[in-house]
Amino acid sequence: LGNFEEKRMAKTGSSAPPSSFEVHIMGQIESAVFPNEDNLFCQFRLLHGSDWQVIAGMEEGITQVASVPVGSEQKVIWNFPLDITLKSSNVFGWPQLILEVHGPDFLNRDVIRGYGAVHLPLTPGSHVLHVRMFKPLSSSLLQQFISWIGGKP
C-alpha cells in the first residue's frame, strides 16, 4: 500500500488528499406495519445536499403493492432492493431516505397512509433502520369531512 501511495503522489505531483468521497447504499425496504390497512405500496426518494451527486442507482421509486398475508400481524412485506452510489466533496446534506406509504380508500382511490424519513447511517457496516411513520390530521371536523369527500385526507 505504501508503494502505491508514493506512485500516486508522484503521478499527480501533489500530496493533497482526495477531493471527494463515495457512499454506497445497499439494502432493502423490507416491510411495514399499518393496522387495519391492506394493499399498500411505498414510494421512496433519496434527499441529499446540493454537493451530492448520484453516480449509480435510482434516486426515487415505487415498490410493488403488497397485501397482508392471512393470519399475520398486519405486516406488509415488500423486500424492495436499494442500490445507490453517491459522491460528494463534503458531508453537508448527508443523505436521508424519505418514505410515503399509500393505499386505497373505500372507493379505491390512492390515499396517503403515512410519511417518514431517516438519515442514512454514518458508519459502514450492516444496519437495521426503523422509520416511524406519521399522518397529519385535519384540524377540524369540517376539514376532515371535506378531505374525506375529496379523497385527500
Architecture overview:
This is B9 domain-containing protein 1. It is found in: Cytoplasm, Cytoskeleton, Cilium basal body. Belongs to the B9D family. Its main location: cytoplasm. It holds the Pfam family B9-C2. This protein is mainly beta and about 150 residues long. It has a single domain, classed as Sandwich (Immunoglobulin-like), CATH 2.60.40.150. About 15% of the residues lie in helices and about 40% in strands. The protein contains two helices and seven strands. It has helices spanning about 1-10, 140-150; strands at about 20-35, 40-45, 55, 60, 75-90, 95-105, 110-120. It has a four-stranded antiparallel β-sheet with strand order 4-2-6-7, with no helix packed on it. Strand 6 and strand 7 (about 110-120) form a beta hairpin. The longest helix has 11 residues, at about 1-10. The protein is elongated, with a radius of gyration of 21 Å.
Report the CATH topology name.
Immunoglobulin-like
Number of helices: 2
Mean pLDDT: 84
The succession of helices and strands, N to C, reads HEEEEEEEH
Straight-line N-to-C gap: 59 Å
Strand content: 35-45%
Overall morphology: elongated
What is the C-alpha radius of gyration, as a whole number of Å? 21 Å
Helix % is 10-25%
Structural class: mainly beta
CATH top level is: Mainly Beta
The CATH superfamily appears as C2 domain
Order of strands across the widest beta sheet?
A: 4-2-6-7
Oligomer: single chain
| Number of E-state strands | 7
CATH arch. level architecture? Sandwich
Uncertain runs with pLDDT below 50, 5 residues or more? 1-12
Tell me about the largest β-sheet: 4 strands, antiparallel
Q: What's the structural domain tally?
A: 1
Protein name: B9 domain-containing protein 1
Keywords: Cell projection, Cilium biogenesis/degradation, Cytoplasm, Cytoskeleton
Family: Belongs to the B9D family.
Pfam family, one: B9-C2
